Amino acid sequence: MANDTATQHSAGSDEVQGWLRGRLPSTWYAGDVEVSVDRDEIVVRGGLADTDGVPAGDSAAEQGRISRFREDTRSERIRIAREAESKFGRTIAWGAAVGSTSEMFTTLSVPVMTRLRQPERIVLDTLVDAGVARSRSHALAWCVRLVGRHTEDWLAELRGALTAVQEVRERGPEPQ
Questions:
Q1: Are the beta carbons of 88 and 11 closer than 8 angstroms?
Q2: What is the mean pLDDT of residues 4-10?
Q3: Hey, is 48 helix, strand or coil?
Q4: Contact yes or no for 98/56 (Cβ under 8 A)
Q5: C-alpha to C-alpha distances, 55 to 27, 46, 49, 82, 100, nearest whole angstrom
Q6: What is the mean pLDDT of residues 73-81?
């Protein structure tokens, strides 16, 4: 289990990952499950353990296996998500992959308020006018995804530095 970002409440990313390691049925995912945590949501995704009968490269069969997993595990995923929400104050989003096909389900889309000056608004309006995005909000989300895709190494290094800062804070003196 990997990928940690900013955390909320008293639960750290390591605690969430450890709890999920013990709570998730071992028959669901093959190998380590990827867990990412932010202020709002815990995302759990991984390759499915049961891929017997799914020919490599058959995207329809891969999608079918993911759909079967989603339906077969629904009640248990809901139970785990409710426990996690109670324990960690965040919802859980689930995802699965088989071969080259992956799908996320039950994910949050959280509104984020921002103030932009005219040059930034012009960028967003250009994307809308060109049909790249439906709205300024959609254009901004598109920009964030694009930056994330092209700077993943830098963002990973930054997340590591944030984790180190959090560890130093936790070891520091208690506020009086």
A1: yes
A2: 38
A3: strand
A4: no
A5: 20, 19, 14, 35, 11
A6: 96
Instruction: Say if CB 6 and CB 39 are below 8 A apart.
Output: yes
- Contact between 43 and 33 under an 8 Å Cβ cutoff? The reply is no
State how far the alpha carbon of 54 is from the alpha carbons of 51, 61, 99, in Å. 6, 6, 9
Query: What is the predicted pLDDT for the residue at 104?
Result: 94
Mean pLDDT of the residues in the chain = 88
In this predicted model, what pLDDT tens digit does every residue of 17-31 receive, in sequence order? 999 989 999 999 998
Q: How far is CA 121 from CA 75, 118, 135, 141, 147, in A?
A: 44, 5, 11, 13, 17
Residues in Cβ contact with 33 at an 8 Å cutoff, skipping those fewer than 6 apart: 1, 20, 21, 24, 44, 45, 46
Q: Higher model confidence: residue 24 or residue 148?
A: 24
29 token code pair: 């995912």
